[in-house]
Amino acid sequence: MYFENIIGQVFAKRYITNALTKNMLNNAYIFEGIKGIGKMSFAKELANTLIGITPENSPDFIVIEKEDKSHRIKIEQIRNMKSGVYEKPISDYKIYIIKDAHLMSEEAQNAILKTIEEPPSYAIFIFITENLESLLPTIRSRCDIVRFTPLKREEIKLYLTDKYSLDDKSALVYSAFSGGSISRAEELMNDSDFREMREDIQNCISVISDRNRMKIEFLADGIEKYEKEIINLLDIMINYLRDIIIIKEKLDTDLITNIDRITFIENMSRKISCSQIASIIDIIEDTKEKLRGYCSFKMSIQVMFLNIYEVIK
C-alpha cells in the first residue's frame, strides 16, 4: 500500500495511487496547498516508490529551491537543472522537485516550460506550491494539479501527542490554532509569544466584559508591544469570541479553539450577548483591514477599543 506514512490527504493518495496502479503517471504534477500539510513528504514518498531507495541517497532525486539569501528561484538554477534532464537515470525514473515553485521568477518558469512540454519518458517534475495562481497558465495547463487540503484537528492532535508526548488538551489547542498545518502547530508549540498573547487577550476580554470605559481605553497601551504580531493577536481575540458564541448557542464543543480555557469562556458567555460579540468581531475585522492598509497602528487600536466600548456599554 502506498503513502502509509502520509497524514490525511485522502484525495491525493487515491489520485496518485490510481496512476501508479494503472502505470499512468504523468510527467508533470503540481502539488498545491498551504504550508505544512505534507506536500514535500508526499513527493518524497512517491520518489521512494519509483526509485526504490531513500530519495536523498539517489542521484535521480533532484530538489530545486531558492538559494540562501535569495527570495526567488532563478533562471540559472533552472538552466543548470535542464542540463542534466536528458542524462539517463540509474533507476527507472528521474524525479525533479521544484520546492516553493511560486518563488520561480517568470523567466525561470518560461525556461522550464519546453522541458515539461517534451520531457523524456523517465522524467517526472513535481512543482510544490502554496499559490497555484503564481504559476504561469502555460505551466498549469501542462501539469496534473493535485490539491492538498488542510489537515483535520484530530489528525494534527494525534501527530503531536505521538511525536512530542503532549497531553491531549495542549495538542488540541495547537491543532486548533494551526489552520490545518502541522508545521504551524509545531511553531506554536515553541512560541512563547503565542502563549503570552493568549493570556493578554484573555485579560482584554475580561476587561471588556466589565464595561469600564477607562479600563477598556487603557487596553490599547497594553498591546502596543505586539505591533509586529497584531494580526495574529487580533485573530486570537476573534477565536476567543467565537468560542463564547459556541458555548452560548450550545454548539458542538469540538469546535472550540481555546479548549484549555473552557471555564473562562463559560464565564464570559454569561456576560456578553451573541449580538454584542458579532458586532465586536466586525469591529476587529475592520481594524485588521485598516492595519493591512498601513493605517496608524496606535490610532487604529485606540479607535477599535473605543468602538468596542460603544457596543458593550
Automatic annotation (TrEMBL):
InterPro entries associated with the record: DNA_Rep/Repair_Clamp_Loader, P-loop_NTPase
Residue ranges of coiled coil: none
GO BP terms, alphabetized: DNA-templated DNA replication
Gene3D superfamilies per record: 1.20.272.10, P-loop containing nucleotide triphosphate hydrolases (3.40.50.300)
Protein name per the record: AAA family ATPase
Species: Peptacetobacter hominis
